[in-house]
Amino acid sequence: MAETKPTATASVKSTSVQAKKSSNAISWLAPIICIIAGYCIWRFILGSADGFHEPDKAGGFWPQHHKPKGAMNAIYEGGIIVPLLIGMFLMVVTFSIERLLTISKALGSGSVADFIRKVQYHLANRNVDAAMAECDKQRGSVANVMRAGLRRYKEMTVNNELSTDQKVLAIQKEVEEATALELPMLQKNLVFLSTITSVGTLIALLGTVMGMIRSFSALGEEGGGAGAATQLAVGISEALYNTALGIGTSAFALIMYNVFTTKIDSITYGIDESGFTLTQSFASLYK
User: What predicted TM-score, i.e. pTM, was given to this entire model?
Assistant: First the structure.
């Protein structure tokens, strides 16, 4: 019988990359806390009885205060949609801070381009240990993927069973598996920012429409006149606070989403370049 060559899957150890352990508590806990905080801000700060000439002394879940003393108190009269919009704004702030910390850590220390050039230099001199030391210094997502590939790279340099093509495929597979574990961590929770970008304005329009309905209903009950027209104008201005809050929240969410996706794209590009560096280096030096 003809002798068959061992395949890469049969002779190469399973991946050394370990799945990252991360808590997902913030994904469901933060929205709840933000909505509750939004209601508290609306009810007890914007809706403080001291901020109105005609406060509702009975209080309750939604006191019917009238004649606000300042612009901040006037926001309270925008209605029950306002605390939801405030909660969404707090969510944008919360997840922006969380993503900023995570992505800053993923970027590592120093320039990614300089890091890749240093690794290329060490690999060109067949100094894999020095290249791995550079990964320990950089400590970002690109370095994590590069370190995983370098471990397999080092194994392949002493492997006499596989062909060069099989060794390159083994290194490439290791890089792909490390990348598959690294990228979800970078993109986590961005869905909240993208959702608020589109939903925030719709919810604000809902609040505006509800305010307009209340205003025109009050106009109908008054039966017309100058006083009714004044009340209608005040009611419309209060309803438009919903629109202003929603547009501002959506704009902020859109800006932060684009900032983070741009940073993630730069990390992804660095990861792709790392994989190309490893495979091309091995193919040229260990033929």
Answer: 0.84
